[in-house]
Structure formats: structure tokens, C-alpha cells
TrEMBL record, chains A, B:
InterPro entries: Alliinase_C (IPR006948), Alliinase_N_sf (IPR037029), Ethylene_sulfur-biosynth (IPR050478), PyrdxlP-dep_Trfase (IPR015424), PyrdxlP-dep_Trfase_major (IPR015421), PyrdxlP-dep_Trfase_small (IPR015422)
Signal sequence extent: none
Gene source species: Eutrema salsugineum
Full protein name: Alliinase C-terminal domain-containing protein
Residue spans crossing the bilayer: 12-29
Matches recorded under SUPFAM superfamilies: PLP-dependent transferases
Amino acid sequence: MEQIPRVLSWRNMLVLSLAINFSLILRILKGDDEYSLYRTAYFSMWPVASGSSASCNYNEMEEEKDDDRIINLKLGDPTVYERYWQEMGEMATMVIPGWQSLSYFSDNNNNLCWFLEPELGKEIVRVHNVVGNAVTQDRFIVVGTGSTQLYQAALYALSPRDDSGPINVVSAAPFYSSYPLITDCIKSGLYRWGGDAKTYKEEGPYIELVTSPNNPDGFLRKPVVNRSKGILIHDLAYYWPQYTPITSIADHDVMLFTASKSTGHAGMRIGWALVKDRETAKKMTEYIELNTIGVSKDSQLKASKVLKVVSDSCEKSGNETAKSFFEHSYDALSKRWELLRQAAKNSQHFTVPDFASQRCNFLGKVFESQPAFAWLKCGKGIVDCEKFLREKQKILTKSGKYFGDDQSYVRISMLDRDSNFKIFLHRISSSFNSTL
Amino acid sequence: MEQIPRVLSWRNMLVLSLAINFSLILRILKGDDEYSLYRTAYFSMWPVASGSSASCNYNEMEEEKDDDRIINLKLGDPTVYERYWQEMGEMATMVIPGWQSLSYFSDNNNNLCWFLEPELGKEIVRVHNVVGNAVTQDRFIVVGTGSTQLYQAALYALSPRDDSGPINVVSAAPFYSSYPLITDCIKSGLYRWGGDAKTYKEEGPYIELVTSPNNPDGFLRKPVVNRSKGILIHDLAYYWPQYTPITSIADHDVMLFTASKSTGHAGMRIGWALVKDRETAKKMTEYIELNTIGVSKDSQLKASKVLKVVSDSCEKSGNETAKSFFEHSYDALSKRWELLRQAAKNSQHFTVPDFASQRCNFLGKVFESQPAFAWLKCGKGIVDCEKFLREKQKILTKSGKYFGDDQSYVRISMLDRDSNFKIFLHRISSSFNSTL
């Protein structure tokens, strides 16, 4: 029998085996951090991220075969973010034990918003400090089941309690189509929709809703009514670097944000408000207590994890292989807007807004806004743009009439899946060229 | 040097080390099944269940040292269920990837309630069929952020849309203290609180809220007004075997349930409605769309898992070592009510309600109700029972005046943690004996 080479002696093999023992034990003890493997049906479907960077390549959009299906871009379902979060893999996985969060209450040290999970509060402050898009110092955080619920909480909190009748709530057209519906849905005696802020002439107190960047058209906004008894609510759902340059740190009395449009987690139903005034924050908390006895703890814990991943990605970024979440998302929207503008230029029969380029303090570059929605205007000859796109090209959009504007405009989601967006581009390029 | 014993030779140690490697690798690959270890701060605190049966022993309540702290039994925080869910361990653990549930929408085959997760719908039907407490056949399921939101959705759906002014909403006193607050909080033009159903005399349409078993007093209820234009909402939050015998399968037009009181997962914020009429279900869905654009998908997925564990436990039960969730919960409440009744008998200065014994079709035995709240009445000499207990014994309860009844009554939670309940029992036994 040949002698076993010295390097393969029992002792050396034992040392090697013990080293493997040690690393496996460390792996188990490290638990649900980067290296743990979960064999749920979901995980077996997707690639496991081996590091902290996602490698989404948005520069090459392959051709998508048009199967003639209806393309629904009517709503802002943020599925464009799916790819990033799939590639992040277990980095953003939440493990929730069955015994956790049974209680209505959080261990939150008598926080004014008694149902806010402390971890979420911490991550909200962190992400705003990292991005530099909103003041958090000396602000109360109120968490809500989406910013939709927080909007209603703010109306409840800010409406007067005297017998002067419902306060008017206005916003400059084109305004977010849901605002009038939400405001008036149960005919509140505290507040009511007062219409277009640009034409608002009534005396007395009013609430003005300033959405900036605006939904549907993407423009940055300031208050419009500007009279002495105005109370402002700032909806900053889209004030993130993937949509618009961050030129200053927003500093308003009531600022609303939502996970749906910052990280893309719409199904999670988490929003938050940064509120200056204690009494206002207290009343907003009271509304949410009466409406839903707080906010899902499971969603709050997931949101804190997701925001942590986002903030971590910002702090680790700096080179091609380790872009932050916002850089990835900026790239995705940048490419889409570039293609849309090209299609508009080629077609010459529809337009999309132009935005002034500005320097973004967070991304460190100059660019023009690339909003979550395209406010597309059909050219001459087309009175009802929504009808035209629906009937001629099976593209569903939301008509400008729902935004207090006219039917020559439509709002089109720029946040849908790649496949839908590509087919949309292809169809609008051909529809306008062949029809007009 | 001594010769190393043969058993400790390099070769044998290598074999042992390789065997350890193999089992560690298996452990990692098996992932989040029964044997995986999660090193989160939470898991290090609790024992990991090694099987599917929980072994909660409620028969021996050890003495709890009274540290003179304030005992708050004012609210129905269902922490009594923590022990069961801790002992279930990973059986009820939910693993939620970061990329899951980004979308607002579910893949739910055009379900009327478009944001309902199909898995949750399935488990809701299953648990009701297993327990036999409500008809699900031909019913629409509407999911909500707790039954609190569904109550408001039902009011929205059932209120007339003519110009007749807000419809009155009534309930027989003592009624759930939050109903008037929720109903009137934003002074809706569609509905308003109309007070005690027992003294309601107005003509025309009305909505009657029937809570059965009732909160606060635990009695089974039927409609009280019984006039021709009445619309009924049945709040069946406590119609589960741990609280009351299941004597029949509830069959009403609108039936509300909540995870908070069925499984104890209050922080999850999940409730559901079983609705007979399609238009009513559609309008309830519309309300929740306007209020919060649906319901947290993460909570829905967790709820479906929790309900599955509960239904599975019912199907596996049948002997001492494998009790169902409901049998465990029945035992916990049974013991508490026995101790409370004993304390009442010994003290003779306060009373709690007696209930008729009935046969429970699910548990297969005869027992009297053991509600989630004790509707305690202080004896003569004590006009304000809440004040007495708060000042003399540092026990916080909810005064009967908030339930449309008088101050000699208080509502006391029977769902709090063992430690708090024990101290409460000890104090009320001594307080009444020493003071009166």
C-alpha cells in the first residue's frame, strides 16, 4: 500500500475538519443574518444574495413580446421595486414568531404615539438623516396604516372643534384624485373638500394640502392660498432621491411619508408623519386609536427592517458594485423616463412635462425630476386621452378629470413591472404614429 | 510521553468531527423547521417547542409576590395567550421575505374584497367550519385592520344615501364603551350614535349593534329594538369556545370577528366580516379602500398561519397531551373564573355575573360562560367602584358609566398576564374584607 502523503495525515485532516466544525457552528449562531438559509417555498424560487449589493442592471431593457393583453397603468402599484428586493434576498427577511406582538401595546417608554414600535421610530429618524430630506429633530412621529390613514388623522387633528361647521380642505389642481373621495367619504361634520386651491376665495380658516413632488404631475409645490388662517399639511410621499433631487431638508409642521413610495412596500401598509406640534400629534394618535386601535406591529417590524436595509445600503455605497437602494431606484426611473421622452420626441403627438435640472444633495449630481407618474398630454385631435389609449391600445390610465384637470391629460404609472412598461412604450409609440 | 489511548487516535477523532460536521450541515439545510435556531433577542428568552403540543398547565397558579405596582386591567389586552404561543414555538413562526407583498394587490382571482389574501380567506372558512360557530357558505369575507375598522366599514355600507340625515346607531346598555366614540368621532353625516337600544323610541330606519357574548358583561344577546326598519350588525368577537359554549352556528347578515380575541393576536390588527349581501360587502370593501387602501399583507399572512395552527390543533386534539388551542384557552379562563368566583364568595362584598350552563357543541361539554371581562359590581356603601379599586388597591378598571350603566359596576379584563391576575385576586380579596 502506498504511504498516505504527509499533508493528508489523520491529524491534518482532523484540524481541517475541526475548522469546518467551527465555521458551521458560527454560521448557526449568527442566525438570521446574511448567511442563514430558509427552505420555504418562496426562497427556493429566488436567488440568494451573497452580499449586500444588488446588481440590477437597468441599462439594457430587452424587447418584450406584446401579447395584446390589457396594460393597467392606472394605479401607482410600486412593483418596479420587486427586482431590487428579490436581489437583496434574506437581507430583508423578517422572521416573526407566533408569540410576538400579541399585545396591543409596544414597549415604547411612554411615547406620545403609544402604538409606535420603537425600532421603527429609530429607523425612520435614521433614514431621514441619511437622505437629508426632512427634519426629524424635535418632531413627534405618528405611524399609520399608510399615509392615507395619516392624512385623515391630520384632518381630524387640525379641524376646529367649535360650531363653525366643517373646515374647507383644498389643494391646487391637478391634485391627487383620492383626496376629495377620502375627505368626503363619510360626510364629516369636521372637514369637507373645498376644491382647487388656485381658485379658493372663501374667508376664514382652511386646510391646504401641499403634495410635493405632486401627484399626478411631478412638480414641486408650495402653498398657493397663502392667507392668514391657513393650516398646511405637506404630503411628501415622493420627496425621495429616485424621484426628485433633494435640494433642501423639508421643514414643515405636518409632513407625511409612506413606505409604499419610498421603499416600494405598498402591501405592508405603513406610513409615518413628522409632526411639530405636540397637541396635533396627540390628536392624530387618537384618531388612529379610534379608527384601528393602532397599526399592525408585524408591518411596523418589517418596515423597520426594510428601512434599516435601505439606510445600511446608503452607508455602504460608493462604487459600482455596491449602489445604495436610492441609486438603484434612480437608475430604474432614469432609464424609463429617458425611453418615455424618446418615444414622445419620436411620436410628436403627445407630451410629458419637462422639469428644471437641480443638484441633489444626496446623490451628489444634477438631474431633472423623474416622477412616479407621467402626466401625459395627448396631442390635438384627441379630446379624451384616457378613452383613446384604452380603446385603441388597451392601456388603462387615469383621466385628468379625476385630478381636477381636463381629459386631454392622463396619469400613467412609471412604477409598474418592466414587462408592462415595455409593452406600454411600444404601443404608445405605434398608436400615435399610426393614428394621427 | 504516554501513548494516547487508541480510542482517542487522530483517525477516531476525525471520524467524530466529520459526524458533527454532517449533523451541523443537516441542521443548516433543514432551515426554519423545528430545529433551527434563531439568535434574535426574543428567541433567546423563550423555550423552543420541540413538538406540536403545548403543555400549559393552568391548574396550579403559584403565589405571586405583590410588589405594590399599579395593576391595569382596564383594557382587553389578550396577553393571557402569550404562554400558549410561546410554547407553540416555531410552529407559528412566519418568515416574510423583503420582496414579498410589495404590491397593493393580492392574487385573489377577482375576489370582491380585492385586498384579501386568498390563504387567509381559506383559513377563516376552515376555522369557522372546525369550531362550528358561524355560517360561511355563500358569505363574502371582508378583511379589516381589526374588527374596529370593520364596524366603521359596516356603518358606511349600511347607512342610507338619501338626504334623510344620519341614521341612528343603537346598542343595548351596557354596551362596548368604544362604540359611541368611534361612531361619532368625525361627526359623520351618514350615521350617529343613538344611545341605548332598550330605550330607543324613534321612528324610521336604525342600525342595531348586537354584541354576543356582550362586552362588558359577557351575556349572550339578541336584538332588542325589533322594529321593521332595523338593520343589524352582529359583533361576535367573543363567540369562541374559550369564552362561551358554542350552542349554534351563528347565521346573521353581518358578523364581525377579530384575531385579537379569538387567537389573542391583538397587535396583528386583523379582523374579518362574514357578509351575506353582495352590495354590503362591496361597500365595506370600498370603505377600507378609502380609509387605508386595504389591509397589511404581512398581518394577513401571519393571521393565516396562526389560524392554520389553531385549526390543526383542533384536528389533532383528543388526548391529554394534545389539546387544541381552544381547550388550552378554555382551561386558562376556567381556572381564572373559578378563582374569581371563590374570591367573590369569600368576600361577599362584590358580585360577578352568573351564567346559565349550556352544552358546547365544539368542546362536547356543559359549562357556563367564562367571558373575557368580569362585570364586577361593588357592594353597598361603594358608589364609585372604579374609584374605590383605583385609590384603595391600585387596580385600574373601566367604570360602568362608560358602558351606559352606573358607577357601581366596573369592567375588569380576564385576559391579562398571570402575574397581574394573581395580584388582582389577592388585592380584591383583601380590599373588600378589610374595608367593609
